[in-house]
Here is the input.
Amino acid sequence: MNRERAETFLRLLAESKLRDPARLPLSGPPPAGAPFGMLPVALIRAAWALTTVGALDQETADSILADTELAVAARNRLEPPLAVTLSTAGPGWAAGPASSRRFAGARLTMRSGRQAPRGPTPRAGPGPGGPDRYVPVGVMILFHDETISGELDLMSYAHTASGARLVAMWQGRNPLGSRHHGPPPVEAFTVTDDRGTPYDLLFSTNGRPEWTCELGLEPDPPPDIGWLEVTAPGEQAVRVDLNRRADTPAPEVSDVGLSVGEHLLTRIAERLLVAAAEFPAQPVAGEHASMAVGLGAVIAALEATEMLSAGSPVPGQLAALCASLQVRGHGITVAPAPELPEPWISLLSHYHRRKPDTARAGDGFAGLAAALPELDGVRLVLLGLHNCDGGTWVDALALGGLPGRQHGPLGLDLAFPLSVWVRDDAGRWHVARPSGWFDGGSEAALTLRLTPPLTRSPAWIEVLAAGQSAEVRTTVPLGWGYPR
Here is the structure.
């Protein structure tokens, strides 16, 4: 990392923009509240990249951009802009009137920051140094009373230092037949273990979509209980076997040795792919072309500060991706790479088919439990997969904790340091991005949304999780509760 060259690069880039009036975006005052609204997008995004990878400190970047904007205002005889700071919030990635006025220069492996409100005080769990326990369940619990009926679908059981919980989704209906979005009446459930010990269920949706939840067990159960018996209102008892073993092969770990710059560009490429897949009826070359503006400046900034080698294949892959999506104006000067990673090609195929009405998998849930090796300070544990309302989600824990969300370009959440992909048993790849999480200190409840969603209920999935230094592959069998 060359911090001195980072500052020099940004100043020279700012001067080059000032020397070319055609590159200055405004002929009048910037919109009210728009941070650095007079500056070219490429300059702002280069500053964002340099602060994100830690090559330039926040104060220096803000100072350079503020001085440049004052110069632009003077040349256009405009009122000097108010003192503001660079923003990374929102989908416009570090540019746009809707951005917040505070810039958080989050690194990809950031471990500090604002945390979500804490949940209950962690309990004893399996014991100091004791192994955590993860069990695939895949059991449906029916319930009904005078006001609501429905089902509670148990996907997995997890017991860690923070306590024991069942990861579940639910569906409910009121007597008139309409869908009920309130929580299931778990306070009326009775739960006992194989030793006759009764438990209360503690309902929580922290970090998960409204139809999924965690059901904490109170008091904390012994680490070796064999089963739980759950009795819901109006139904017979259902036994949940906790001696099931996840028939999962040992994960394959391989070194990748990405530079910080390559890891950042890869995350940006994935976000472009997600945008294309999420809006298949809209050409990326139109509405979404702004997402790629300034990529050339970002690459040049990373190369100038030695955060990206001149021979790296990633810029060429990014250029090839933009060409395939018919996105222009990105400013990448290297030739497009002849080959792209297999998961990228799979999502590109989905985009080019442009079939927004393709049938998606019906609502359903699958029990799974797979703990991945630690990557970049985070150990990801997969605890369920479910389809609901046309989308597909993977429920997980992130051991090691995650900081508060740090939004960056294209909606990137830089506080989550991993790239996660899922391949179904038909060979189609799906990118898995965080849709939310709840930081509980040493662990975070996390939900990953698959793009595109599943179109069927696969018997197994292959999970590819990659950090900056290594990647993990593992095949996980799925025990569907009621695939449709």
Observations:
- Residues 260-278 form the longest helix (19 residues).
- Confidence is low (pLDDT under 50) at residues 26-35, 82-124.
